[in-house]
Each structure stands twice: as C-alpha cells, then as structure tokens.
Description:
Layout: H1 11-17, H2 21-25, H3 31-38, H4 52-55, H5 62-77, H6 84-95, H7 109-132, E1 139-140, E2 143-144, E3 153-154, E4 157-159, E5 162-166, H8 175-193, E6 202-207, E7 212-217, H9 218-225, H10 231-252
Parallel strand pairs: 5-6
Antiparallel strand pairs: 1-4, 2-3, 4-5, 6-7
Helix pairs in contact: 1-8, 5-6, 5-7
Amino acid sequence: xxxxxxxxxxxxxxxxxxxxxxxxxxxxxxxxxxxxxxxxxxxxxxxxxxxxxxxxxxxxxxxxxxxxxxxxxxxxxxxxxxxxxxxxxxxxxxxxxxxxxxxxxxxxxxxxxxxxxxxxxxxxxxxxxxxxxxxxxxxxxxxxxxxxxxxxxxxxxxxxxxxxxxxxxxxxxxxxxxxxxxxxxxxxxxxxxxxxxxxxxxxxxxxxxxxxxxxxxxxxxxxxxxxxxxxxxxxxxxxxxxxxxxxxxxxxx
Length: 253
C-alpha cells in the first residue's frame, strides 16, 4: 500500500469525522460512562464561568469568537502586545481548515468582553496546570504524531506528558471529545514504541467558558473504554482498521 497516494487526514478528523474507527477501538465509551466521567469535572481556582446573559449578546459566530479568545490567550502566554486584528486573522485561518469561516467586520463591546474573559480563564487555567506539574512550562500546539495515511497534527497545549484539549461549548464534554484525546494518546503510544515522541500519560479536557476541567489517566480510561483489551491489542486493532480504511480509499481513487 502506497499511503502517500491516499487522501491525507489529520488526527482530529480521524477522531471526530470518520465513523466506525473509534467505535470499534473504544466500544465501552458509552453515554453512561461519559456522564460518569463528566461528574469528576472541577473548576479552576480564580476563574469564573461566562454567564449566559453575556453570551446571549454575542454578535459573532461562537466558534469564531472562541477561536479569537484562544489566540488572545496565546498572545498573553507569550507576553505579546494585545492585537485583536491579529487575533481575528489567525482565528479565521485556523477555522477555515475545518469550516466555511467568515471574518466579522468588527468585534462589538460584548464580543470583546466575552473573548477577553475566555482568554483570561484559559491563561489562568494553563498556569494552574503548570503549578500542579512542578511548574513545567506549557507547550503550545504540541505535535500529534501521524500514522500511515494519518498526517501529523497538533493539539492545543501540553504540560510534560499531559495533553490539554480546549473546548469552549455550552455543554458537558462529549464522547467525541474523549475519543479525540484517546486517538491522540494512541498515536503517541504508537510513536513511542517506534522510538519517536513520548507517550502521553494523561489528558485534560478544559472548558474556559464554563470553567471546568477533567484530568484523565490514559491507562485507566483505555481500560474502561477498550473493553478489556491491552494497549498493545488496541494498537494492533487500530493498525488493522487504519490499513483496511486506507485500502478502501486506495480502491476508490
């Protein structure tokens, strides 16, 4: 199989948009399990959730505005000067990779307030996680290894061997969110066996909008979601599924 001829998919797309792969890998990641995991979510000290009365005054697309907030948080973490125009342009570039995104003509006072508060919560959250990890410095956009026709991608943040994925929705963390970080972990595990990147040991789902986070040990989550399979067995199944999917794509091209 010559994988470079296949349509390349990034890890995020594999985790969230290709049906079947994650269901076979993690068959026990059922709604009841997800609800149980979500009950372990905790607030970040010093942060407050964004009230719905403020969110209701938003005039910009929610996904775009929270991407703007994410970029603003990066500016703060890098000690850069506040530049909302740059935030808008970078947010548009990132959103355009996955959606048909439009750049708003301007951010209203309420939009800026929402973005500023979200960015502040995100920065405080990252610094809190750093403090819990012996002040190991957070890395922005950590590499997510590729595999066969799956391209290399990037996560949101990492601190040591902890991967951090940021979600700015109005709901609890979903099964898709857990599948995403599990696929990221699996790709890191595969890479570590081959002498590449270090395996992620834990993952954090973080929502600065609702001010909640949950930290998960990947070995423990894998035992729950993987129906009793070992890490090696899950990796072997993953390799088989990816190979089969690649074969089907190759025959269609």
